[in-house]
């Protein structure tokens, strides 16, 4: 167990901000370009088309089409935030004009008292602050705060920041323990982490204190949601359909030890809690985060970094319940997991958080957007049989669980969320401290770091995650002693490090999963890192029922899957031997360049099955009933970009 | 493909009626006694308690408690039918008095014009015959007709039979192709098979013709359900939530080739269609039945004889979709499958229908009632993990999918259905023809058959299904030549037959799955049949995703399962080798006497898994990660009668 003191010490390490990181090529440049050129524009058009943008004019009236939804505000907010990150690294007048126009609408929508919310201004004005449990008012406010901070950081323009400070001031007046104030909190966490951002940008202590108020109040007795229900003349709904664990409000946060309820709510909340713990140096909050994190990654996380095992309330279910075909694994939840992981990584200095961040990033997160940037998954299944999904679509009548990416959703939280993540990727790669530069993530890029009083350029040249080699050019202004800490990925079992072509023994240099290279660094020093990337089979804990007798294929941080278009149907029947691991081969022309796996699998012939659904199984029959076939696996994130059909992550173990 | 001519020839074989069959001991006597002493009484009390019985007084008024449901009538009807079968073989004054009292109430509830239905008399009288699609009026009528016939056959009492003939006459007036008649049919088939029973008992040709009308109209265009919806000012609902295949009304019956929609509706319908085909000698109807049957048993039936793979509309889904934990496999559906199988068996003379009947009977049907006769499954899962079911109960909020048997259900179709099946079991065992006696099912019993002009007693002495040996005493009035056809069960790979201790070569005697023993039979002739019953592993078709890499254990007609109470938790992780089949052992004191299986399985140790959800899988690691354990399997039908916990039918194949 880490203590907050330890965490606080390490907190001196801060991420290198987006504007000092440049992604120059490779895997992420391609995605950022698609994000900028396609995704952001498509989302702007969808916001126009669906009425989300113009809803800020507040001219909707009962009976009009396109009734604003309770969290439409957040869709625009996330789009602005994504655009802001993109503008930080890639100025674009047209995009900036679109954002400015949107911000003008938003600013004009702010009420006299500072209040700012579409739904509760035009649809249900009489219900302002009356349904904190499900109304999403503070959730929307939080997303707008994040947008305001990002846009200010990107452009220096203060309009939205000022609007949101005014709104925050008003919220701070409305909420609190004082007489006449609402002693409550939002059913959907988000404002907590947003208030910390606003505090860090403005230095306004009240925003941090308001965050602490929301965090401290959550789950206390008598229960705010009960009181709120009572004040609206309703029965409290503590149990049953959506119990309070759905909102992570079943217990005070410091007493929570298992991740429960709605998965997006959970990871947004714990991200804010981790921020708060760092700012106010609260060991009990930090410990809660650490234990909740451990519970999540040890019992309730898909191998893709997906979380939330069921469409039912998009929630965590029970330990080791990780069904593949009905996996929910919402894109937003994996993104929130990345937020949380980043905060834990910075505070703990432990590489295991960045391991999960990287793993989630390359698998269950970017699976949420199509190769061409224009279609999105809400739920990220780990197994797809079109017939089953056709039937489920009939059953649930919702596109969130669709087996192919969709253009948009009624509740369209995921598309702008993936856009802001991709646009902001640079901020996760590097961190800096007084005497230390840290490389968290590998990828073609360069960054300007401030190490103590000195300016250091780091440049990565690599075709990671496809290639094993990362070459790092170190360029301090002048020769100086400091450390460069390189994350040794958890998936990597064999590493070689050379400094200026001289091999280094890493073992004595390991520090919480990082290879700490401390020396006097001179301009033109070069580090070469070789992270061996064999194809590996991964098995799940024996209590994961869904994966009994199955393995997943992985190479580096990439989890693979089989698709029907490469392997025909009935993928679940295939078995792969641990003694014959498939071979990796790069295919530059396939899906913008991916490394595929090719190997031999065994599958059933359908011989002697005519007219039978069941038959006697005898050992001797096994061989004749099976045939060897060649199979091809592609990165999980890249699936569903070719012909629709079956997909499978966990293949049978021969 | 059989032709109807062939079928019609064989139709001269008729089942030996219940009153000429006596179950003297063994497996079924025990169940019939429990059914008579416990189940029937409990159901009577539930009908009293829930208001079902007194609802016939028609004194319910808007605002009263216990609003009658649209198909309450059928619950009482099935209870009367069950009681009638029981009274046929076991006279019981008290039970007969209860039935007579109920019938008095029902008779008094009949309206002037002959109409008879609780809901549409007291709750929605204005909607009589207005919602055939979902109203269940003719469905309820059908069950009351079945009850009337059964009670008349049992006791000779005509009151209910007369009431139902009057109702049938009224229905015959209301429905038809003529002017002013409703050219439609019920959304829930049942009246079709009931009208054939009524016709066979009364000889009234109009009842058969009405059945034919309902069968011929079903699924024709323009669609009756569209017209009905239009006449109520509603939009037709051909597609979406409950398309017409739910009602088997998507196509005319003669054009249906795949079993679709609500599984109970399907098997009730096709039972009636098979009856009609036989009565009117319609080859196209018979062929449709045959193809629908083949589709069901080859693509959409659980190994337990369960049908209907999902709680969503209790329906068939798509080919090879047979999930175990979310199996619906409603008890009523397996019972309906037995009805259909019996009709197909009698018409085709082919043992494969009785094979499925027997298999369904011993597995997915009697699993629906507890050992003590007082608790019931609605859905019969093939795999249970209590945590998952706890969560599903939260999600679906219904007891139909519960993981433990329940005392009763809001929609309580299954309990009285299993009661009538068990009480009527004798009628499935024997059949008779001009020159042939047929034994369809084995079990301690004796029967009086009419073979041509001669009276023949057959007596089975056996501990079937636990023992392999069936001893049959043949007692014709006098020596005479005729055939005795013994079904060779499909599960049996090795059989020995002796007549008066002399071995017989069966192979030349096989006829459509029956061993036809033709000779001059004399009083005191004795047949000994030894049906070898090794423990066998069964595998499912490779396209059954849920069972990939898994086997089920079976001995004779009994499918086995593993329970937590015998084998600890995480059953899905266990693997069994085909080279080491478990041993059978009879346990006279366990669950009223069952044969259990005991063997060796391999299961994961949890060594080196601390803090991990995923890890690298390597071949060499396999052995140390596994340990050998002894396991015990019990008959599937008997599960859930001891400590609650996990249950699994399909175990991993090592």
From TrEMBL, chains A, B:
Name the residues that span the membrane.
none
Q: Name one GO molecular function term.
A: hydrolase activity
Name all Non-reducing end beta-L-arabinofuranosidase-like GH127 catalytic domain ranges: 21-426
SUPFAM superfamilies cross-referenced by the UniProt entry = Six-hairpin glycosidases
Keyword Hydrolase included in the entry's annotation: yes
Give the UniProt keywords, A-Z.
Hydrolase
Cite the InterPro entries for this sequence: 6-hairpin_glycosidase_sf, Beta-AFase-like, Beta-AFase-like_GH127_C, Beta-AFase-like_GH127_cat, Beta-AFase-like_GH127_middle
Q: List, for all copies, the residue spans of the domain called Non-reducing end beta-L-arabinofuranosidase-like GH127 middle.
A: 438-533
One Pfam family this sequence matches: Glyco_hydro127C
List each copy of the Non-reducing end beta-L-arabinofuranosidase-like GH127 C-terminal domain by range.
535-651
Q: What is this protein called?
A: Glycoside hydrolase family 127 protein
What organism is recorded for this protein? Paenibacillus baimaensis
């Amino acid at each position: 167990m880490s203590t907050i003191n330890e965490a606080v010490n390490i907190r001196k390490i801060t991420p290198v901000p987006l504007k000092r990181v440049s992604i120059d090529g490779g895997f992420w440049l391609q995605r950022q370009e698609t994000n900028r050129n396609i995704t952001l524009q498509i989302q702007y058009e969808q916001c126009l088309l669906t009425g989300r943008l113009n809803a800020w004019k507040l001219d909707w009236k009962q009976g009009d089409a396109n009734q604003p939804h309770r969290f439409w505000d957040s869709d625009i907010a996330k789009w602005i935030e994504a655009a802001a990150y993109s503008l930080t690294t890639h100025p674009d007048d047209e995009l900036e004009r679109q954002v400015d126009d949107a911000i003008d609408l938003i600013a004009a929508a702010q009420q006299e008292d500072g209040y700012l919310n579409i739904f509760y201004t035009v649809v249900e004005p009489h219900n302002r602050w009356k349904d904190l449990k499900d109304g999403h008012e503070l959730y929307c406010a939080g997303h707008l705060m994040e947008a305001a901070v990002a846009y200010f950081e990107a452009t220096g323009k203060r309009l939205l920041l000022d609007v949101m400070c005014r709104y925050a001031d008003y919220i701070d007046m409305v909420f609190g323990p004082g007489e006449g104030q609402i002693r409550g909190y939002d059913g959907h966490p988000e404002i907590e982490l947003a208030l910390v951002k606003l505090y860090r940008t403005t230095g306004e202590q009240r925003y941090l204190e308001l965050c602490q108020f929301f965090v401290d109040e959550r789950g206390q007795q008598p229960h705010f949601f009960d009181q709120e229900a009572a004040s609206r003349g309703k029965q409290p709904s503590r149990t049953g359909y959506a119990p309070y664990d759905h909102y992570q409000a079943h217990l005070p946060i410091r007493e929570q030890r298992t991740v429960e309820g709605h998965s997006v709510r959970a990871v947004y909340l714990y991200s804010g809690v981790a921020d708060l713990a760092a700012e106010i140096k609260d060991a009990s909050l930090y410990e809660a985060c650490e234990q909740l994190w451990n519970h999540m990654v040890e019992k309730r996380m898909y191998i893709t970094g997906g979380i939330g095992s069921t469409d039912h309330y998009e929630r965590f279910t029970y330990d080791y319940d990780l069904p593949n075909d009905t996996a929910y694994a919402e894109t937003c939840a994996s993104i929130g997991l990345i937020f949380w992981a980043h905060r834990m990584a910075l505070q703990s200095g432990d590489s295991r958080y960045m391991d999960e961040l990287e793993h989630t990033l390359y698998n269950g997160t970017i699976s949420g957007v199509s190769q061409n940037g224009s279609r999105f998954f809400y739920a990220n299944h780990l197994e797809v049989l079109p017939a089953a999904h056709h039937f489920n679509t009939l059953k649930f009548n919702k596109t969130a669980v669709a087996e192919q990416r969709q253009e948009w959703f009624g509740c369209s939280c995921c598309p702008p969320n993936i856009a802001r993540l991709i646009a902001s990727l640079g901020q996760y790669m590097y961190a800096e401290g007084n005497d230390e530069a840290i490389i968290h993530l590998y990828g073609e890029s360069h960054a300007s770091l401030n190490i103590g009083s000195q300016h250091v350029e780091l440049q990565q040249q690599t075709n990671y995650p496809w290639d094993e080699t990362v070459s790092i050019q170190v360029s301090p202004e002048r020769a100086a002693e400091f450390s460069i800490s390189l994350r040794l990925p958890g998936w990597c079992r064999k590493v070689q490090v050379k400094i200026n072509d001289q091999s280094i023994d890493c073992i004595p240099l390991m520090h919480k999963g990082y290879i700490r290279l401390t020396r006097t660094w001179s301009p033109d020093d070069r580090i070469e890192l070789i992270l061996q990337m064999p194809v590996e089979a991964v098995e799940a804990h024996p209590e994961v029922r869904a994966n009994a007798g199955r393995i997943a294929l992985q190479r580096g941080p990439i989890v693979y899957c089989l698709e029907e278009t490469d392997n025909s149907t009935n993928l679940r029947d295939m078995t792969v031997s641990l003694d014959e691991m498939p071979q990796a081969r790069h295919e530059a022309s396939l899906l913008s360049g991916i490394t595929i796996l090719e190997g031999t699998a065994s599958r059933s012939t359908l011989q002697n099955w005519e007219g039978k659904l069941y038959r006697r199984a005898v050992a001797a029959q096994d061989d004749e009933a099976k045939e060897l076939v060649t199979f091809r696996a592609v990165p999980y994130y890249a699936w569903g970009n070719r012909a629709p059909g079956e997909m499978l992550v966990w293949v049978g173990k021969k």
